[in-house]
Each structure stands twice: as C-alpha cells, then as structure tokens.
Amino acid sequence: MPEIHTSLLFKSTPEKVFAALAEHVVFFQGPEMACRLLEAGNGESNGFGAVREIRSGSFVFVESITRFERPTGFDYRVSSLRHASGWKLPFRHERGWLELTAENGGTRVDWRSRFSIAIPLLGRLLERRFAKVAGRGFEKLLLAARRRLEPDPVA
Hints:
Layout: E1 3-10, H1 14-22, H2 24-27, E2 33-39, E3 51-56, E4 59-69, E5 73-83, E6 91-103, E7 106-117, H3 123-149
Antiparallel strand pairs: 1-7, 2-3, 3-4, 4-5, 5-6, 6-7
Helix pairs in contact: 1-3
C-alpha cells in the first residue's frame, strides 16, 4: 500500500502549530481548495469524530478525524473520494496522520497517508501519480500554514 510522507520544520511551538493545523477550514484554504465541517467533533468542533469535506480541484474528499491528541497529532480517514461530477473513485484509505514533535525550539510536522486505488491493471500507476500530486499538495498546505504562523519579518 503506497504511503505519502511530507515533513516540515516550524519555528513555532507544538501547541501553536497544532492549533493551526487542526483549524481545518483555515488550513485547507488555497487556490482551488476549500474545506467545510460537516459534523462537529466530540468536545471540540474540529476534534475527534469531526467530519470534514475537502474540495481540491475537481475532487471531493469526505474525511473523519479518528484520533485527536493536542498537541502531538491527529489521525483521519478518507471515507469517500469523488469527482465533482459525482463519479465515486475506488479509493481505499487506510490511515492519514499528522505527528508533531518538538525539535530545536520549534516543531517538526510529519504528515503521512496510506491508500490504494482499486482499479485492475491501472491502479498501481494511478497510485504513483496520486501519491506524487498529493505529496506536493501536503507540502504546499504545510508551507502555507507556516507562513501564516511565521510571517516573513522582512516583508
């Protein structure tokens, strides 16, 4: 099963980074990207049990937060992936997770996701392509979060 892994170091504390990453609607903002909360989590709207819908380009993901441990990380699971036209993709998501670790006065964020695409003959090719595109997307989202938390002092 393919695994995507993106890692980025923030200068901010784990508490601040976690708060930024767990604010799903803000975190998933960007060109051709939006998020809305479908169901609030238990105790915290973005926490354990929350269900979110993420639109990325022409794809729509529905994800559930399956672990939420402030400030060390959270897990999610994609329950459905469809094209904006309504066509459901045969996407099987095992687990996605973000781990936050204190490092050199800042925070290391490791974002991983395991999935498969169940299409005979083409599945492996599509998995490689999806992993490459999603990995770049994960990196862009983390870089945008870091810019929001740590604006360039020169600007």
